[in-house]
## 1
Amino acid sequence: MKKNLRAFTMIELMIVVLMLNVMAGVVGVMWLRVERMAKVSTDNVMFSIKAQTVLSRIEKDINHSFQVSQSESALLLLTQLSADGAVKKITYTLENGELIRNQNEEGKNDLSMKIANLGNAQFLLEKTSDGAIRMEWFEEAKGRPLDVRPKRLITFVKGSQLHP
């Protein structure tokens, strides 16, 4: 007596394997896109944190200064009074892709510290027509042909006069 046995044919099994491979490919592509988006988001957050920290430090120095100026050798020259009444000069310069803050106070040793390593970022500082100081920290999208959106953070400091 013959029993009717039902089983999958080889064609059916090959179709199932093909469908699983297609689904695995789609999931893999989606996973790579999610990872890429997470990296871009992390890079943007790190850029914002770094730029905000640096610009806040410079803004604080500008707000505590009674004289603000620029020169060819320095991005920013600030003159402040210390707690004991001594004149304190603070200079921001760009040296080898690093933003350097130099502090010179009468009768004390000079203090120099690296504020930031700019890498491929750029820092601009200029006076606006209303007397405010415009500080811009930006990074162009290099090495990524389809990424045309640069990272940019701009802040304005009012109440100080920028002397040429």
## 2
Amino acid sequence: MREIPSTRLYAGGSAFFFPPPFTGEVSAQRTEGAAARDDAEKGPLRRLRRHLPRYCGGGKALLTRLLAVSVLALASCTDKEPETLSGYVEADTLYIASEEPGRLIELMAREGDRVEKGAPLFRIDPARLSYSLESSEASAVAAARRVADKGALDQAVAEAEAERERAKLALDRSVSLKRDGYVAQARVDNDRAAFEAAEARVARARAERDAAVADVEAMTAQAGLARQRLSDLQTLAPASGSVERIYRRPGEVVAAGDPVLSLLPPGSMKLRFFAPAGLLSSLSVGGTIYYSCDGCGAEKPAAISYIAAEPQFTPPVIYSIKEREKLVFLVEARPEDPDGLRPGLPVDVRAK
């Protein structure tokens, strides 16, 4: 006598277990090894068909019902959830630098401080540029005096014009006397040469005066530039945000354009993730995605701001082998509510 093996049917993640009925002696025409091989070849469904009639009337009807339940369960398994992608937070950090080289003498913010737009951040030593400003202003004042009314250049022009009038009278007198035969032609030629020389001196004096006026304008502009450079030694915050990092300390000499600190405006946060080619058709610039992260609470929306035109095979941050094996496109999105986000924070992105 041998036991009929129990039968277990798997459908839709559920296991249906049928215990073997006691049937007394079983025909020994088939050995236990042959029955086991037959079970292995035909599978659980064929075993269910073989054993059901032995202990349950209407086994075919029951089998039909079980198959229907299995089909429904398998169909429900095919409904996939929206694909979740791994990404991270990045920020467009502002690197604040001085426009002028010099020694840093005052730092007005610390790391982590929140500053408003226009707030002073740091200041460069103004001593050298102060001397330059004083020199430029003195030169502008001196040049302005030269071109002022009744100044030196105006007097030079007046003298040249008077000399020209005298030369004109002498020429006219020589021409009249020559006509009456009292003087030779040589006298007329000399007076004409003197008159032409006087006209040339008038033109030169006027040109010098005009050039001096232009010099005044240039020196005034140079003094204004020196004044602006002196004002720029105190750097103001270009936007509201938090001070992320300080790179230079008071007493250090900084070069023009060398960052002194970095500023993180709240609106500079963005999400970066890599979408597979199959998902790209459902994404578009201006569209909405949803993200979540540790400590962020419920899912939040973000607007897609950029989709790469060219694919890449490996994202710069590898989160899993599955991600690495895909052909992906870089996508960036701007969160509507960036509170709680920090650069480098991993996020889960889902497109609805």
